[in-house]
Amino acid sequence: MLVNGKESSYSFLELSKPTGKYVARFVIKLVNIFMAKHYFRFLGNSCSPGLVMSDIQNDGGIQQFQTSGNECGLIVCNVFGINPVKDGVVIPADPYMVVYLNPKWQSFNDYKSDMSSKYRTRTNRVYTLSKEIIFKNLNSEGLENWIPACASLLFETLKHKTITIGKDLGLILRSYHNQLGDNFQINGYFKGDQLIGFISFIKNENQMYAMHLGYELGIGTEIHLYQRMMYDLIGISIEHKLKSLNLGRTAPEIKSTMGAVPVENSFVFFSRSKLFKWVIQFYASKIHQPLAYTLRHPFKES
Fold it and tell me: Which residues touch 69 (CB under 8 Å, ≥6 apart)?
């Protein structure tokens, strides 16, 4: 797709409904029919939230998109900030939670030392609860052998949380690995010989992006495995002397206890169809509810 005269990649989404919890199945099917006919397009890579952001001009209007023919009914862009956009309907997204790593931190202990005693105690408790759990880098353990088990854990973790689960999660993980090589890593978490969780991440220049994760809820919830995974990524980022770690959109309050701060972003919808535009405007004004959360401040005041 040409955007302001420059070639830009786009992708298509497929919605699924594993739990029957969100919206009617016929709505999902209807949306997927439009998706399959390429009426809806997502500017950039929809599978890389926070890593690939849309490059549009807020005052450029819908004319900045040059698509072949009139088959594209809806264009969706994820952009930083929450600003008015000409011809576009702006819907605030949950914030990306980003840890900006202090250059003076040489180790995870340095990071903990900068915390107030309350949050340092919380961090230590996570490692105490999960002390019997070890993690291994699955890239060095023969990643292909572990992808089916990781895909199963990912499905069990996501099935009550989203309607955008693909049919073959193993293919998604495998595609990341094939395309990005060692820049895409997976850490596996084991209780004895049993894989009970995993988290994947992408290293891009001097930044790291947390991606997919999954774990056995019965075990993981009890030992705070989710927090353990996040802390381990912070430790790895410090070890590699990176500048920032993007922990993604979910659980902003928990992530703020680890030092992550919110980065505002939004979805902008463009359409030449009055019907599509009306539906999106109705959703934005009458249905959409911004996420409510409380930010924590774990570091000692300087």
Answer: none
Q: Which of 245, 132, 108, 122 is nearest to 196 (CA)?
A: 132
Q: 74-80 and 40-43: which strand pairing?
A: parallel
Closest by CA to 238, choosing from 100, 38, 128, 144, is 100
CB atoms within 10 A of CB 147: 20
The dihedrals phi and psi of 248, each to the nearest 5 degrees, come to 85, -170
Shortest CA distance to 127 belongs to which of 223, 202, 220? 223
What tens digit of pLDDT does each residue of 82-116 get? 999 999 999 999 999 999 999 999 999 999 999 99
Q: pTM for the full model?
A: 0.89
Q: What angle do CA 74, 76, 80 make, to 5 degrees?
A: 155
The rounded distance, in Å, linking the Cα atoms of 86 and 77 is 13
Query: Where in the chain are all domains bearing CATH 3.40.630.30?
Result: 97-262
pLDDT at 193 over 70: yes
What is the rounded CA–CA span in Å between residue 102 and residue 241? 9
Q: Does domain 97-262 have CATH number 3.40.250.10?
A: no
Distance CA 261, CA 266 (A): 16
pLDDT in tens, 196-225: 999 999 998 899 999 999 999 889 999 999
| 259 exposure class (CB count in 10 Å sphere: 0-12, 13-18, 19+) | buried
